[in-house]
Amino acid sequence: MEPTSDSNFEETVKSIGELHGNMAVLSKLDALLKDLNTDISEPERLIQSDGAISGTIVQLSNSPLYGFNDKSDNIATALQKVGYNQALKLVGMALSKQVFMRDLESYGVTADSYWRYSYFTAVFLERQAKALGIDSDEAYLFGLLHSIGRVVINEILHAREVEVFWDRFIPEKEWELMMIGFTNQKAGSILLRTWDFPAELCKRVEQQNHNPSTSKDLQILLLDYARTLALHLIDPPRLKALCRPGAHPAQAKLRLTEAELTKEVTEIEAHVDEVYTSLKDC
């Protein structure tokens, strides 16, 4: 297969971005919530502009995930009940159902596995960022969106009717470069720029695999550990080993004991299960 030129690849990524254009709501909401001068009604209007997102959010606010007895029937009451500080996470949940709950046939990854992997890393980064005093919303978005480039490459190969699947006998990067000439990190970065996500986030997505375990960027270091944990959630012995001291350089930053880290992973796993069930019911 002939490699794709830079310009053609960017145009292809942008066209895929248009198919999932409602993801731009997430970047716009992030910007609104960071603006201290934002009127409280603006996030409501933004979310209401997409019927599918707003409907899912109202259903989520009424789900056992939040445990309220009173039911919401619109975005305003849903956000008032759950809390405006949860708006970004609610929209992230709703959009993750649309974008991440789909099979990545080219990678041999099921929809359930891809969603759980992406959402676990998002929650792990968010919780550790809060503990470390760094921007937790920024970390949450990085965790949630770091592998969205896989969606791009999967859709490109599907559109070209290419039935050569990644079999893991060769590194993922090598396979992607061989198939289309670009990595999923590059594709994800271009896609996020198309949706007007912050430049720093786009840069992190593109650079996430540049010596991540020794990165001076704390979010990239945390992501590398989160990804490793997420990939071994179904392997309890390996997961237990990954929580032991010295298993990953990120542990030195977290300053958690083995027991605390194990508890943290267990709690996040349980939360991911709760969100998964709630989204499936929406």
Automatic annotation (TrEMBL):
Domain HDOD: 19-211
SUPFAM superfamilies registered for this protein in UniProt: HD-domain/PDEase-like (SSF109604)
Family annotation (Gene3D superfamilies): Hypothetical protein af1432 (1.10.3210.10)
Source taxon at top rank: Bacteria
A family per Pfam: HDOD
The protein's name in its UniProt record: HDOD domain-containing protein
Source organism of the structure: Pelagicoccus mobilis
